[in-house]
Amino acid sequence: MKLKPNIATSEAGFIFNPATGDSFAANPLAADILARAKAGLDAAAIKADILTRYDVAPGQLEKDWDDLLAQLRDFNLLDGSGKWEAGSEEQAMGKAK
Amino acid sequence: MPPPTSRFPLPTSETRPRLTVAVTGLNATDSPGPGVAVIRALRETTDFDLRIIGLSYEALEPGIYLRELVDKTYQLPYPSAGTAALLARLAHIREREAVAVLIPNFDAELFNFIKLAPELRALGIHTFLPTLEQLEARDKLNLSAFGAAHGFGTPASRPLHSAFELTAAAEVLGWPLVLKGRYYDAAVVHSLAQAEQAFGRLSGLWGVPLIAQQFVAGQEINIAGLGDGHGRALSVVPMRKLTITDRGKAWAGITLEDEALLALARRFAEATRWRGGFELELIRTAADELMILEINPRFPAWIYLTAAAGQNQPAALLRLALGLPVPTMEDYAVGKMFVRYAWDLITDHTEFQQVAALGEL
User: What count of Cα atoms within 13 Å lies in the side-chain half-sphere of residue B339?
Assistant: First the structure.
C-alpha cells in the first residue's frame, strides 16, 4: 500500500486528497495504519505489529486488511496499482537520515 | 539617529495612489453575482487606495448597502436598454466620480460594455474585457463547435427554439437532459413532462433559444482564470464545490491541486487568447475525462477564494486594465476553503428610497 504522495493525513485520522477535494475520517486503527504506511513501514511489519497489539486472528486480519485496501482504492487514495508496494519504506528511511 | 528605512517601503494608504473603480454584479443573493466578491478582493490590493463605485440594476441588490465595501452606488439602465442609454448613464457618473477602471461582472451586460470600450476609454474609463469574437465563441450555443475547434471535450448540445423540439433533442442526447437558459439557470430533466415544464419556466425567464445539453455524470469542478489577451493564463485556481444549493450554486468549495486542471485552463487561454477573467465549469467523468460544461466570460461569484489562496485575480485584472505589468502567478494554497453564509444586512428605508427614487446612494 502506497498512498498517493499528495495525500494529507492527520494524527486525528483526517485524510485529505488535494486533487479531488475529498476528505475522509479514519477510525483510530486505520489512522494508525496509514501513518505507519506513510512513514514507510511495509505491510508485513504493520500486520505483525497489529497481531502483537490486538487480539485478532491472522485470518481475520488479512480479511480486514483487504477490506481497508479496497476502500482506499475506491476512494482513489492509493498510488499505482493499489497494491502494497515497496519504496515508500526507502523514502521514509531517506527522510530519517 | 533616524530609524532605518527600507529601500522599498510597503505602500500605506497615505502613499498609495488613489484610484476609483466601478464594479457591477452587486446582487449577493442565493444566486450571486460576482461583484461583492470582486470588490472584497480588490480591497486587498496594496497597489492603490481604492474608492469603489457600485453599479446596480435593482434597488435591493445587497452590495449597495455594504457600505464598508462600496463607497457609492449608481443604478444603471438594464442591458436591454442598449448601449446609448448605458453610455449616457456612465458619462453622467463619470462627471461625478473619477472612475478609472470599470469591471463588469454579468454575462448579459458584457456585450454592451465590450461595444462601448472605446467610448469608455475616451471618458477615461479603462476596462479589460474579452473581444466580441471571444464572447461569441464560448457562448453556450456555440460551445460544442468551440470544443471541436480547439480539442476540448464538451457535451453534445443543440439549441431549442420551442418546446416542440424537446422530443427530437432527447432522441439525440438521451435522458436525463440538461436544459439551460442562454445566460443563466439550468434544469436537469428526466422526462418529456419535466422537460416541457422546465422549458416554460426557463424560456419565460430568459427567452429563447434555450440549450439542450447531454447530461454527463461526474465530479463538478470549476476553474477561475485570468487571461492576458496574448495567450497566457496569468492565474489559474481550480475549485471543487463542496455544498451546492438547489440552484446549482456553490455554497462551499475548496481549492484543488491537479496539474491536468491547470493545463486545461492554460490551454484555453492560449487557444482563445482570452482577455480578462473567465470561469471554466467542468465535469470529470468516471473515466477521468474532463468535459467543459460552460465557459463564463467573467469572474465567478467565488472569486474571493483566489485571493484567499494567494492569487488575487481581481487585483491583477485592475493592473492589466491600467496597462501595468502582471507576472504569471504559479503558487496558491491547496485545500483553502470558502463557506458562504447568509447575513441579514440592516439598513433604513431612507437609504432604500434614495436608491429607488434617485438611482444612487
Answer: 0
CB contacts of B257 in chain A (<8 Å) are 6, 18-19
Among the listed residues B34, B44, B10, B68, the one whose alpha carbon sits nearest the alpha carbon of residue B222: B34
Decide if A8 touches B, using CB distance below 8 A.
yes
- How far B319 CA sits from the closest chain A CA (Å)? 30
How would you class B151 by CB atoms within 10 Å of its CB: exposed for 0-12, middle for 13-18, buried for 19 or more? exposed
Give B254's contacts in chain A (Cβ within 8 Å).
21
Is B240 an interface residue toward A (CB < 8 Å)? yes
ipTM above 0.95, yes or no: no
Interface touch A21/B240, C-beta < 8 Å: yes
End-to-end C-alpha distance for chain A, whole angstroms: 23
Sheet holding B49-56, edge to edge: B72-75, B49-56, B18-24, B99-103
Do residue A18 and residue B219 have CB atoms under 8 angstroms apart?
no
B62-99 per-position pLDDT tens digit? 999 999 999 999 999 999 999 999 999 999 999 999 99
Rg (C-alpha) for chain A, rounded Å, is 13
In the sheet with A22-25, reading across from the earlier edge strand, the strands are A8-9, A14-17, A22-25
pTM of the full structure: 0.86
